[in-house]
């Protein structure tokens, strides 16, 4: 019965005194002993909205706001609390936009009255730019701090700098005069743990001691990270992008973007990256930036009291997050537009661009990597690509699509198993086990022992004359002794072949561990592991093509371009294309991904290979399923998200989806002037619907408007406190004029001010594809169904999600907080 209800989750059923003044989204989520897992019985009802007995009700925005709903006959004094939202509820986009227009008109009408009103008008106009500036500044500063701390703690697993404890390995050897070019990472100031503990720099004892210390530090960092997340901020785990997409679509998750989440995510992100787990910091940086945007929006009433306006700030913040994650301001804006934002007006585009610019400028000023770049793996190539190379680039795209499809299915299957078994109840143990396996297997292989960003840097880098990596151990056939930028293709040496075997093992290791790592209860991004997998595959393919061109330069495909002694193939370019293809296969991004990778490399010349690989990976991935990893996790967690990219192709009508069905009880409604306060209170106590259609009379069923349960509760409570003579037998009137009542009747209660006089309605013969489009494009919470003006039923966002699942042969009862 409850799953069939039309409007779900009300307030406190038994008491009207349960409405408490609530705090903002910044408040601490009391996470002691809480695991971020949506399997509990309470969570099963969160989206259903069943107001179970004892549920305590809190407001999302807190405090008093002006109730300016659209087309309402406003009271002289707005009722405090009307127009705000409960946790795990969807906002009414139309009402929020109308509130903002009303606020804007009010400010404009007063600005000529005095200099103070003019100042307030200017402050209001500039507050949008101020909030994105503050967000950009904070995002850039936090990203710099995270980069520096993660580098230092990653090197701490291997040793320590005695001359300056706060220096990482590279910085420690910068000022040393005893460093040779071949062994640039060795200097007397840097001591490995074996040298410090047993006094040996070489030998089996040294290797075993360094191995043990590496595992010890990895487990310590992982344990500290998961403990902080579990105790202080359960919402700080994961990448955060699925939840941010859901929040930007209009869903309320209180505490997800609060100050405690920000603080714990910043600290634990450093620990998680330093632990060596197969994860990245780029996705969580978007969450960190959105936390900054949310916190700063509370400084400006324009945004703190309007959920739709706040989401414009969050869109700009997500652009700033990608800007500092990849050093790609334009890519960040496109990422926000293509991947996360639900509503993206032109004004938000400009502010996102500005936020990304400010964040990138701050990060560049901090210079966390010491290379005057925004990212560690910035590269430049000097050789062009040739037409025949499109074939291996497309093959890398196919590999990226296959990897994406495999990863999404395997990771979702594992996450679903985690939810449905006892294993999910022990998140700390899971993180420790994954970290231990990762550390034990990673240490022997130099490519898996490296920080993932450094691994990508090494794979992207072209082999110049000054490179000492084993990937550049070619047999030198040059007669010339001069050093040139473009070294001709050469036969691979033993170092290259051993590096290829190590890379193959690293590829298998990364693929397996990333499946089990993404979704554990620490901050974990997916961008860097996916790029590493693609970069490894790309480098292997690049070396193979290079050797093929060297030994068979007389083949017709190589004949025109690859002459003897020419620098024909760049293996680093293949690594870059492979990285883009694998990231595209997992996330299904296209335009923004190409721009991000282009900004990483600074080469316009390589846009065509990138586009070819990314589009191929998307097509191959879509052949196995159209969902990206973020949409798959949204569906797994049961968030009410209508994806604008999905097509609704079924020929059903609104009458097929609306509630009540034939077997259901009749629709719970209010009449415009025939009900008493007690009648409405009884209706609210007996049902758990979130709102009630208001009709002229039970006989006519003509629609008048729509009243939200929450607004009714607050309005009745407020009237009883402030107006004399309001009792249980008082007539409630939603009409413009109060009907004539007997002289001895108690004072009537006028509630027209909380009535939505223009609810969205469709007829019972409206095709569902049009209804779905209306819900997506207008962000509706519900839509009423009529026939010749008479009310028939109601369709909510959850009804559409259930119907979509049903048409896709899924169990409709299992999709909401399963």
Automatic annotation (TrEMBL):
UniProt keyword Transmembrane helix present: yes
The keyword ATP-binding is annotated on this UniProt entry: yes
Family under the similarity heading: Belongs to the chloride channel (TC 2.A.49) family. ClC-3/CLCN3 subfamily.
Membrane-spanning intervals of the chain: 126-150, 214-236, 256-277, 284-301, 313-337, 386-408, 428-447, 499-520, 532-553, 573-598
Gene Ontology CC annotation, any one: lysosomal membrane
Protein role: Strongly outwardly rectifying, electrogenic H(+)/Cl(-)exchanger which mediates the exchange of chloride ions against protons. The CLC channel family contains both chloride channels and proton-coupled anion transporters that exchange chloride or another anion for protons. The presence of conserved gating glutamate residues is typical for family members that function as antiporters.
Top-rank lineage group of the source organism: Eukaryota
Name of protein: Chloride channel protein
Species assigned in the record: Calidris pygmaea (Spoon-billed sandpiper)
InterPro entries in UniProt: CBS_dom, CBS_dom_sf, Cl-channel_core, ClC, ClC3
Matches recorded under Pfam families: CBS, Voltage_CLC
Domain CBS: from-to ranges: 658-722, 755-812
Localization, UniProt: Cell membrane; Early endosome membrane; Late endosome membrane; Lysosome membrane
Entry membrane topology: Multi-pass membrane protein
Single GO molecular function: voltage-gated chloride channel activity
PANTHER family: CHLORIDE CHANNEL PROTEIN (PTHR45711), H(+)_CL(-) EXCHANGE TRANSPORTER 3 (PTHR45711:SF8)
Annotated keywords: Antiport, ATP-binding, CBS domain, Cell membrane, Chloride, Endosome, Glycoprotein, Ion transport, Lysosome, Membrane, Nucleotide-binding, Repeat, Transmembrane, Transmembrane helix, Transport
Coiled coil region boundaries: none
